[in-house]
Amino acid sequence: MSDGRLPVRRRWLRWTIGVIVTFLVLAIGWVTIRGIGAVNDLQQVATSSSTLKEAIGQGDLDKAASLSKRIAHHAGSAHDLTSDPIWTAFGYIPWIGPNFTAVSDVAEIADDIAADALIPVLEVAGELDLASLGFSGGVVDLAPFTLIEPPLAEASTTLSGAEDRALEIDADATLPPLAEAVREMQSTVTQAATVVGSLHGAAALLPTMLGAEGPRNYVIAMQNNAELRSSGGIIGAIALIHAENGRISLVQQASTLDFPALETALPLSDSTIALFEDRPGRYLQNITNIPDFSEAGPAIASRWQLRYGTPIDGVIAVDAVMTKHLLAATGPLPFGPFTVDKNNVVPLLLSEIYAAVPDPAAQDQIFAQAAGAMFGAALSGTDPQNLVAALATSADEDRIRIWSAHEDEQQMLASTSLGGALPADDTETHVGVLFNDTTGGKMDYYAGATITTAVGTCDGEPTTQVRVTWTNDAPADAATSLPPYVTADGMYGVPAGSTRTLVTVYGPEGATPSHIDRDGTEESVQTALLGERSAVQHEVLLAPGESSTITVEYQGTGAGERLTVVDHTPMTSTPDISREQLRCAS
After folding, report:
1. Which of 8, 35, 283, 419 has a C-alpha 20 to 30 A away from that of 384?
2. Could you give phi then psi for residue 312, rounded to 5 degrees?
3. SS3 412
4. Whole-structure pTM value
5. Cα separation of 87 and 338, whole Å?
6. pLDDT at position 416
7. 414-418: long-range contacts at Cβ-Cβ below 8 A with a sequence spacing of 24 or more?
């Protein structure tokens, strides 16, 4: 007979299930409560960070210091709430686990940035005069840069590590609201790492580069984006500046007409010759065809030294669009018959001037006057914080490239975006698109581009697809409505109003093209190796209003990586860049 009790095994099973359910309920309650607290802390971090940015921009360091302590408190709290064993265990649960892991990763990154980057930098910033940033009467006080370099170095290291960890978070594996927050955090951390890295580079390099240990001479090459080259545009004007003990002066200006073609080309890399023959080594205007500024910079310095004999310590290349950012800092400026501001300077310099001043020699004089006026305004009377902001924006858009003849400085520059070197694949995988005009005119003011990437699998292999649509947006009557100097008037075999462009696409390091087409049709292409990157180049001829689409699929090492970044030639109008679902062209 039964005594009414369940068998031992069943009682044990019920008891075990009860314990598990109780534990799960408690655990869910635990992570829910802690999750609510962590999310609230991270929201406070985001809100305070936005206010902190405004305080720093206004030079209010007392407020910035208070906000930084608040950010550190909430970031540390969020980290504590999301780093216990129960929260970590929930990260292993299928489907919902990535959400827990993402929150704890974000909290840990925020905590590290606040404690090891934000607070130390703000503490030393209190020693600086943010109202002047060392600028006075065209002279830069170099002493403060030595003071801030060590904490900036530590902050840069912290932010670089934080960026790597942030980019490893798979936002696509989380729920939509969290995914959006993760992507915003990734973008913010990347921007902070770039800015602080640039500031550290500036603090480490500026004293010697501005003549603290002896006078320096630099060539400034101004690129015209209306006639595109890999790093921005054709060199339209060139100048020499002198730096000594922080004082910067404009010494000499020259025109490209002062640099006739060389009979014997300067030495060039095999990749440059494969893509552009020896033209960059013979014509000053074509040196910026070279994709890597660590090769282009020395070539520009050599041309100046051959022409004028002045030893050159470095080369700085800037493009015409940078003038828009500079004028936002200086305010309107007069030069020649014109007065320009941030809204009209780019259309004037890249388009309207050719109709207003048909003579190329007169154009060169006006370009020289514009460069002199902006240089003078930047070094005297401009609010230093606005000037630094203008330079930072230009650098972020890759509109400034610097090469140094001094090896230690060049090594540091090469590790930053300012060095203009081809990117290295690490946490992120890079692909790129270069545009080089062969029309011979100034038609690229009317050029437009869209670039899409897609990653996945084609034919069973990890694949990265890059698709570029290149458009000639010139008016239909461009042949007659635009000046001959702009259209080139058929001088180089291109019908007036049409554009002829070399479009170069390079893929991830180690990957090779598995499919190449233009408008769905395969055609012969030029190929080259840019370091470990395979590059393919099409020559595209377009009448006004026409477009052409190039598709390249890469397979092999580095292909198919989710975190793929697009680099491209800086243009007048920034290309529309997007990510699409992979549709295998092959």
Report:
1. 419
2. -115, 130
3. helix
4. 0.82
5. 65
6. 81
7. 414/294, 416/197, 416/198, 416/201, 417/194, 417/198, 418/198, 418/201
